[in-house]
Amino acid sequence: MTSLNSELIIDSDVIRHNISYIKGKIKNKSNFMAVIKSDAYGHLLEKLVPDIDDIVDGYGVVRIGEAKKIRKFSDKKVLLMQGVYSHLDLKRSIDLNLDLVVHNNDQFELVAKNKNFNNLWMKVNTGMNRLGFEIDEFMNIYNEYLCNSEFVLMSHLAASNDKSASSNKSQFKLFRSLSNKMNRKVKKSIANTGCVMNFPNQTYDWVRCGIGMYGGYLNDKNILTSMTLRSKIINLRKIKPGERVGYDGRALAKKNMLIASVYIGYADGLPVMIKDKTKVMINDQIASVFGRVSMDIVTLDVTDIKSCKVGDWCEFFSKKLPISNIVSANDLISYYFMTGVKSRVKKLYKTNH
Ligand SMILES: *Cc1c(COP(=O)(O)O)cnc(C)c1O
């Protein structure tokens, strides 16, 4: 007998399905970079990479440790998406044959001295105001050092999920006008998942796709949730009108109710701010959160669930109950749920590949 635990089940076939679907949207002949930072958004990077290596053209990471893990399985392009911050990291990157983002002058100084290093992705700020060179600043560097080099010109969109956001238009416009000033060898990349889905003509040479692969892109029903977060019911009780459930008595019964306590809490990655009425799935039926999430327990209203008993699984998101459900009910983002699953949760990786 194994001990009871909350479980995260990852279905790599769903991820492969999502990748193929998103690739089908791309209008140009862009390369597909699978963004697998933060342990593949919680999808177990070391298991996933060998499973998708045949259908992607490269990988995007943020930490060198992640790049090192990829190199055990793949010789494809690996981009360190926030670049390096020390000589030691630069040396490690060269040893691992990484591509490097350069987003400011400090980083350019670090890499520029290294003449044999030419896998650079020069990041420009087109409006997000987070990382990247200002346009003038970049043109000075380009004219002085890079006008005959091969590199990738890159930028990042601030509101790619919102098709009508005016920032997209202005970011594309700036990026395009800058692209047109570059020599012909320069490649370009601006698209993340939202950009591929909403602006499939703006994909240039490389798309950098993360959330869509994992099913966290919410505006297309063909993209499926690839992780299941679930745990078991450990107690059932009846309560009467006027009784309250959980910390601070947040949930107040207005009728006779059946309350289930489930073996998962915020210490497993179920956020403490989950609201009452958020839908969950038990035996293919819909129940809802009733009471504040505790560290190790969440309470549910299962009054209307037929034949629900201790030991039954409760799913918080899955292929059947898309992550969009819990995301929209709580004004959160899918990235947050996926990367928030804690270490004590039992992780199961399913593959048929
Ligand atoms: C995380 C990241 C991406 C992936 O974005 P998604 O919205 O998950 O597709 C792309 N580019 C950069 C620079 C990133 O940091």
Name some characteristics of this structure.
TIM Barrel, 353 residues, 28% helix, Lyase, Ornithine Decarboxylase, Chain A, domain 1, alpha/beta, binds pyridoxal-5'-phosphate, 8-stranded parallel sheet
Question: What do you see in this structure?
Answer:
By secondary structure, the chain is α/β, with parallel strands linked by helices. The chain is built from eleven helices and 18 strands. The strands form three sheets. It has an eight-stranded parallel β-sheet. The two termini are 29 Å apart. The structure holds pyridoxal-5'-phosphate. The site of pyridoxal-5'-phosphate has 12 residues, from α9 and β9.
Task: Please give a quick description of this structure.
The chain has 353 residues and is α/β, with parallel strands linked by helices. The protein is 28% helix and 23% strand. The chain folds into two domains: 12-214, TIM Barrel, CATH 3.20.20; 227-318 and 320-350, Lyase, Ornithine Decarboxylase, Chain A, domain 1 (Beta Barrel), CATH 2.40.37.10.
